[in-house]
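Weekly puzzle thread! Below is a chain. First person to post its structure in token form gets bragging rights.
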Amino acid sequence: MWAVALHRFLVKEWGIDPSPALVGKYAPGIARPANNVSIQIIDADFKQRYSQQIRDDVVKLNPGFLILIPSDMSKGDIGKLRDVCAGAEGKSLYYAPEKSTLRIGKVTTVDAEHFWKPVAPGMCRYWAVRPMAIAETRPIPDIKLHRKWGVYEALCLSIGHVWRSQYPQSSEGSREERYWNIVDAVSAKTSHFRIYNYRTVHRANMTDYVHRANGSNILHGMNALIAISDAGESLDCAAMAIGQSRHLGGGFLVPADFSVSVCQSDDDFEKGIPTWLK
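Winning reply:
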């Protein structure tokens, strides 16, 4: 909720013509990028739990919001967003009447590509999802190959949406067919991703974990162990998020480090696979 509150605040403070990367709305004919501005919450509980993995200079900061900037956001819009954030210092933030408020503090620039400490020698980094990833679509049956859509397929789609540029894009076929093409690409042996121990996650009030959803859809929460290969550009220290609510406080990837001694080699994936998942 606080991520949604900050998003609304930033849009209001921006004024006329806020950046498409902030509001997620693009003019007709403009190619929609894979990612928009993402807001994650780094509160005291989060910092305490991951204090050994978060970079030291970040741990020393007060609890706050982590605003992730997409790589293709224009320099002008990045500068404007920085000014908006700087101008918000000392102002109050609230998400509902008669609820507590937050006072916005000083802006600090953090290198999101190095948010986490490097993997310790002899360890291998996988990722878990905090608090969960929300599925981005209803289950989609594969009519041609008679495949069923489950948690694994939903996670593949979420990963494919974030790293869309890695996969060929085609406007041919139905939306359902294009989604299955993404699933096939992410799950291929040559893919830079591996997904294990995938499972459904339920909470008492699932609407707290989404920004916007069709009233007819059933909300599906998911978690898993996810490995990302280096592929020439390591993401082992990067702040990343997946899923329907990745832009507003959900689907944040947190480190799950294992000793390489428990990882079985895999010819198709250099990080190997933890033996209990093989």
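Puzzle host: Confirmed. Bonus trivia for everyone else. The longest strand covers residues 193-201.
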